[in-house]
Amino acid sequence: MPERGATFLSGGLPQYNTYRCGDGKYLSLGSLEPWFFANLCRAVGREDLIPHAWDESHHQEIFDHLIGVFQTRSRDEWVDILRQTDICVAPVYQFDEVERDPHLIHRQMIVEVEHPEVGKVKQTGISIKLSETPGGIRRPPPRRCQHTDEVLRGLGYTVPEIERLRREEAVL
């Protein structure tokens, strides 16, 4: 795993990063293409930075400006502002916000299924939407450790080996 900040696409670029906003929530930027970066610079009042998207000697200055400017408004305010100016931006949701996202609702990405033991449970919907062969959820999510033995046997473990792994608490 790369160390955060060690490469451009893992936190090393100011225009491809996450930022804390004034309300303590975060937004995510993915403005790599020149026009997206130019739009970002204009939106945050720093057109002078447009030529320096890939100039590492200016990255700290860009980081510092974005860190400061995003503290001036809430996450949702910034997302609204930046989306109006054609910038790759998205809110970083807290868990309780995910299921209220309009895009996820429209795509039916959180669905309720009936579980035989616990009743209705929410789970991720089918991500690929095909008009002629739509996907569907055939069964509820498994209980914790429900398939451990089956998976381990499929990997070639014997029953005594699986029992030993349980005693050693290597598996549940």
Set down the secondary structure blueprint.
Layout: E1 18-20, E2 26-29, H1 34-43, H2 59-70, H3 75-83, E3 89-92, H4 95-98, H5 102-106, E4 110-115, E5 119-124, H6 148-154, H7 159-167
Overview of this protein structure:
It is built from 7 helices and 5 strands. The mean pLDDT is 91. It is an alpha+beta fold and 172 residues long. The longest helix is centred in the middle third of the chain and has 12 residues, at 59-70. The two termini are 27 Å apart. Strands 1-2-3 form a 3-stranded antiparallel β-sheet, with helices on one face. The chain has 3 domains: 8-92, formyl-coa transferase, domain 3, CATH 3.30.1540.10; 94-139, no CATH class; 142-172, no CATH class. It is elongated.
Which ranges are low-confidence, i.e. pLDDT below 50, for 5 or more consecutive residues? none
Strand content: 5-15%
CATH superfamily of the largest domain: formyl-coa transferase, domain 3
Shape: elongated
* End-to-end separation: 27 Å
